[in-house]
Amino acid sequence: MQTQNIQLSEILDTIEEMGDLSESAMEAARARQEVLAKPTGALGRLEDISIQLAGITGKVKNNMQKQAIVIMSADNGVVSEGVASAPQSVTLSQTINFTRHLTGVSSMAKYFGIDLLVIDVGVKMPIPEALYAPEMTEHVCADVCCQTGLTQKIVNRRIADGTKNLAKEPAMTEDEALRAILTGMEAVEAIKRCGYDIFGVGEMGIGNTTTSACVLAALCGRSGAEVVGRGGGLNDEGLAKKIRIVDEATRGLDPADVLGILAKVGGFDICAMVGAFLGAAYYKLPAVIDGYISAVAALAAVRLAPKAAGYLFGSHLSKEQGYLIAMDALGIRPFFDLGMRLGEGSGCPLAFQVLDAACAVMNNMASFDEAGINDDYLDEIRRGDQFTP
User: Fold this and answer.
1) Cβ distance 275 to 258 under 8 Å?
2) Angstrom distance (rounded) from CA 69 to CA 50
3) How confident is the model at residue 1, as a pLDDT?
4) pLDDT means over runs of 10, the chain (389 residues)
5) Has 81 been annotated as catalytic?
6) Residue 86 lies in a domain
7) Do 165 and 255 contact (CB within 8 A), yes or no?
8) Which one, out of 254, 337, 343, 375, has a CA that is 20 to 30 A from the CA of 324?
């Protein structure tokens, strides 16, 4: 564990030292938005997105066309307490189905041309060896051209056959939590090496709304009633039990001890997602948060490395209770509300389209001069924002 602690410490130090967004690129992006042929602020958050992207990449004009979603799969021992409406076999089935494009996120990913990186960090039931890949990347050859791409199989980074039951004992050791975090970092390194412009972070793990609620409650000092939802469709009895377990499991935990919280009440999937969000800042790639579990992992990452927040974008407003607590703590607003609560990373393909649109405006829209428009009529508006209440 000592070596892993050193690695994590070095990662956090690097983010602290080098994780600032480029102020000069953001200022240049703001200046370009000012001269595009539109009233100031007329494209709302698309303008803000393009400016944030400039800060991340150091470039005013960006393309987010090569996209990936990393999905962390793991089981949670707490399901033995009756806090989930689905059996653990669903984790196994859906992890395999991601690679066959049969799930919500993978069907959208296939349609939009988005690549998936599916990682087993602790699925309880055995996955057939033939479905595993030992590495996250592989050589892909088409005609005479060969390049490195993400594997289309499931990456085997299994730490254990699911976590322990957090209602009775710590979910994992700190060593295991660190291994999962570093797996998330490894995933982003692979995504960066393969030339992706952006990635989203999703998960699969029956019972992970309970682990997420525990982590959020501990980080923010909230009660179970404030952070617990019905997950996949829990009944009233199960909901009451879930609230009680969250309250009991998080009692006395130190909000500042992020690694300790993750080890005691988290999941392998959440820890790996924390590593992925840290990787966004470390490797300077924009990352998209999916729903509740993803948001809680992002918050844990930002508590470890505050500058990581600048590299993150929200996608959809999850219907799961507690989501807005996590996002408010992050200071990040989701792009849209479609009533979604699936998880898997299913909000990411849609969010990528918003980010693409922001880039298209910055890259292709004409300036007033290029469009042959005299913009003197905007002088009064520019002296004061007429649209802010």
Assistant:
1) no
2) 21
3) 46
4) 71 96 98 93 97 98 97 98 93 98 98 98 98 92 74 98 98 98 97 97 97 98 95 86 97 98 98 98 98 98 98 96 97 97 97 98 95 78 57
5) no
6) yes
7) no
8) 254
In a domain, 128, yes or no: yes
Query: 193 — alpha (psi -120 to 50), left (phi > 0) or beta?
Result: alpha
Q: Is residue 289 one of the residues assigned to a domain?
A: yes
- Cβ-contact 287, 280 below 8 angstroms: yes
Which amino acid is it at 220? C
Q: Which two tokens stand for residue 184?
A: 């998330």
DSSP of 329-353, one letter per residue?
Answer: HHT---SB-------TTTTHHHHHH
> How many Cα atoms within 13 Å fall on the side-chain side of residue 167?
16
CATH of the domain at 209: 3.40.50.10210
The domain containing residue 294 runs over which residues?
64-356
Nearby residues of 78 by Cβ (< 8 Å), 6 or more positions away: 163, 165, 166, 167, 171, 207, 210, 211, 245
13 contacts: CB under 8 Å, gap ≥ 6 = none
Closest CA to 359 of 305, 293, 313: 313
What tokens appear for 126 in the block?
Answer: 């055995």
Compute CA distances 290 → 12, 45, 79, 317, whole Å.
23, 18, 23, 9
Cβ atoms of residues 217 and 246 within 8 Å: yes
Is beta strand 145-150 parallel, antiparallel or unpaired with respect to 137-142? Answer: antiparallel
Q: What is the pLDDT of residue 218?
A: 98
Q: What's the first-to-final CA gap in the chain, in angstroms?
A: 53
Q: What pLDDT is stored for residue 232 in this prediction?
A: 79
Closest CA to 263 of 215, 205, 316: 215
Tokens for 389?
């209440």
Q: Which amino acid is at 197?
A: D
Distance CA 337, CA 340 (A): 7
Mind giving me the DSSP string for 257-298? Answer: -HHHHHHHH--HHHHHHHHHHHHHHHTT--EEE-SHHHHHHH
Instruction: Report d(CA 86, CA 109) in Å as an integer.
Output: 24
As beta bridge partners, residue 145 has 142
Of the residues 34, 169, 344, 380, only one is catalytic, namely 344
Q: How many domains does the chain have?
A: 1
Which DSSP category does 367 fall into?
B
377, part of any domain: no
